[in-house]
Amino acid sequence: MQDALLAPFLRLLDDISPSTAVRSAEVGHAHDIWLKLSESGFLDALVSERDGGAGLQPRDVANLLLASGRRLLPAPFGETMVARALATRAGMRLPTTPILLWPENSQGKLRSSLAPVWAGATHALVQRGDQVSLRALGQFAAPADGYALPAATLATAAPVASFTLEPDALLSWSATLTAVAMAGAMAGVLDMTIDHVNTREQFGRKLGQFQAIQHQLAIMAEQTTATCTAARIALSRPLPGPSCLDAAAAKIAANEAAKIVCAIAHAAHGAIGVTAEHDLQLYTRRIKRAVASVGSSAFWADQIGQAHLSEGTDAGVFVRSHWAA
Amino acid sequence: MLDLLHSFALVSPPPAAEALRPRIKAFLTERLGKIPADIRARSWTGFDAEFSRDLANQGWVGFTVPKDYGGGGGSAFDRFVLVEELLLAGAPVAAHWIGDRQSGPLLLRYGTESQRRFFLPRICRGEIFFCIGMSEPNAGSDLAGVRTRAVRDGDFWIMNGSKIWTTHAQKSHYMIALVRTSGGASERQKGLSQFVIDLTLPGVDIRPIVDLAGDAHFSEVFFQDVRLPSDALVGEEGAGWAQVNAELAFERSGPERIYSSIALLDHWVKHLRRAKASSAATRQVGMLMARLATLRQMSLAVTARLASGESPLVEAAILKDLGTQFEQDVPSIIGDTVADDPRLIADQELVRTLAYVSLISPTYSLRGGAREILRGMIARGLGLR
After folding, report:
1. Which residue, of A83, B170, B269, B284, has the greatest Cβ tally within 10 A?
2. Of the candidates A191, A184, A211, A183, which has an alpha carbon nearest to the alpha carbon of residue A269?
């Protein structure tokens, strides 16, 4: 099932997500990408068959989401897929435009220090307490945040419709999808770095022939595959989706790996990797912004630590009861 | 080349394997009683022949060996659940550990029918224990540099040389050793063969070595003109290198690569529950549990690949490197909290466990292939070199 979906999806990514498209989406040109993505039918993958979707579960689309991250697909693909599935389950229809997830606390404050990247979206699914509503986004403005990525804003217009979800369900989804995108992007960074060290020569040898470089790339592979595994665990929970602890383990893995993977990739690339012209920055800029979004390692580690201390079980039982895939 | 995003598929032990868990837990609770954490921390270096035989009576030694050879006929996941519970309980599994984990599977795969008929039922009954003869005084990480040699002499092989760091050789009945049978050291991986050696043979001399924590779990083993019968050869003459690598994938991927510090971690968390954890400690607990959750899943993924007959050397190397880092970080993180917490010092059991684990933890990333060797293998898997 997964492989049958993946091949056509990878062909679609070749078409809509080359680095030129990723770059032009940063200055607001994302319309064509979205058009092709919505025509592809993938957006309703998680919507039940009764409601006209493919009736898949998050674990079935894990490979698609990881592949999107690996190619920096400049559209809120996973977010829209999740928003459409959750809304349809609640009997609500959404417009066929890109939709962001917007988890708030009970006072209506976004639970992330950085707003989601705009990425062509028209609306956000906003959760406050157990209430989830669809709200329009403000007009696209020039990149405002320090990561040179356009941050979304909520429009002042009233919510379109609403339904209820377990409190913080969207926070868990948001952190999970962020971690999945990071895992994919780290795989992309590793792809580029392998290519670079197998090409670039110094001291009369390919960089990849130096043991120091080999070991650094091995570490990148370890960190990337661990993040990928944590992300898959979170996606293994059926709809309505990941638990708080699922999201926590995934975002912690992604955040911790990101520091290591980005640092090694830049070190291996040398000065060329910090130029605007080179594509490495497209990846590391997004990964670093993601680290600073939807919860730090410390925040998520608190959730897990408190749960383990209060539940009173041994580590083996705790791990199996919360993260059995 | 390693397929980064797809090399660790998500799998769970099937319900039949999970169904074993309560029975195993109940047996261990009853059989082991309450063991102090610093003894539990020795788990797979803790040698207790009587315990291994009791486990064998339950059918849990050689669990994956076919019933026809006296085994349990279980799946790789059955064994995963069994081993996971043994390690979480800190059971002293060292006596049967090597035979169960790798010598048995090796003999099953490469041994002759008569070798299988002789050894496997005895392994499964907990009658004979095995050790692994790989490292030598001048061949540690550079395993292909082994110099111990066996030379044909009529129907016998005459063996000379020595092995070192051989876990529990002094208490084992047999060793499966990697030995040079042709060519010189310059021929590297060629000309190596594996032998199953009866350690009671004349000319075998075993000298235990005391470790930094005061235990003597490993030995140096000397072979002087040891006459091995021709049927001591395991598998093909000259195919020792390939056989040993297949064996190492079993050695690197099990839950023992993530749970070596679990007795310390569990005891520390118990302490934190009693003593109201600081917010810093709570976070440390959370970080460690998050890592453990991921590692367990990676171990299951490699188990699934092994079960389907693959030899996922690169994935096993990734798991072992990450897993042993986790195992080594546990005493390092907990050790750091001790200095600020006088209540912790008062818990003598915790201090003893911490001392043992932090002293012995450097071995976690040595046994079964050093970190640097594993990273070289991973780099090759990525297409470097």
Report:
1. A83
2. A191
pLDDT value, residue B1:
61
Residues A141 and A17 in one domain: yes
Question: Is A26 found in the same domain as A158?
Answer: yes
B292 touches A318 (CB < 8 A): no
Name the residue with higher pLDDT: B246 or A307: A307
Considering the domain architecture, whether residues A201 and A154 belong to the same structural domain is answered as no
Measured CA to CA, the distance from residue A173 to residue A171 in angstroms comes to 5
CB-count burial class (<10 Å; 0-12, 13-18, 19+) for A299:
middle
Domain boundary among A166, A194, A220: A166
Same-domain pairing of A188 and A143 = no
The CATH number assigned to the domain holding A187 equals 1.20.140.10
- Alpha carbon distance B151, B148 (integer Å): 10
Name which of A198, A223, A225 to mutate to probe chain B: the one with the most chain B Cβ atoms within 10 A of its Cβ: A225
Cβ–Cβ contact B266 with A under 8 A? yes
Separation between Cα atoms, residue B36 and residue B92, nearest integer Å: 12
A94 and A156 assigned to the same domain: yes
Residues A38, A176, single domain; the answer is no
Q: Is B268 at the interface with chain A, CB within 8 A?
A: no
Do A201 and A156 have their domain in common?
no
Residue of A62, A225, A318 with shortest CB distance to B289? A318
Which of A166, A194, A225 finishes a domain?
A: A166
Please state, in angstroms and as integers, the Cα–Cα distance from residue A308 to each residue in A246, A254, A321, B231, B281, following that order.
Answer: 14, 21, 11, 54, 12
Residue B167, strand partner residues? B218
Q: Which two tokens stand for residue B190?
A: 């060629």
Range of the domain at A135: 2-166
Domain count, chain A: 2
The answer on pLDDT for A1 being more than 50 is no
Q: Is the pLDDT of residue B340 over 80?
A: no
Whether the per-residue pLDDT at A27 is higher than 60: the answer is yes
Contacts of B297 in chain A (CB under 8 A): 229-230, 232-233, 323, 325
- Interatomic CA distance for residues B205 and A321, integer angstroms: 49
Single pTM value for the model: 0.96
Task: Please return the burial class of A109, using the count of CB atoms within 10 Å of its CB with bins 0-12, 13-18 and 19+.
Answer: exposed
A86 shares its domain with A127: yes
At position A287, the amino acid (one-letter code) is I
Q: Which of B287, B313, B337, B371 to mutate to test the interface with A (most CBs of A within 10 A)?
A: B287
Question: From the candidates A182, A199, A222, which should be mutated to test the interface with B, based on the most B CB atoms within 10 A?
Answer: A222
* Cβ neighbours of A315 in B, within 8 Å: 88, 262, 265-266, 269, 289, 292
Q: Which residues of chain B does A179 touch, with a Cβ-Cβ cutoff of 8 Å?
A: none
Mean pLDDT in residue range A142-159? 85
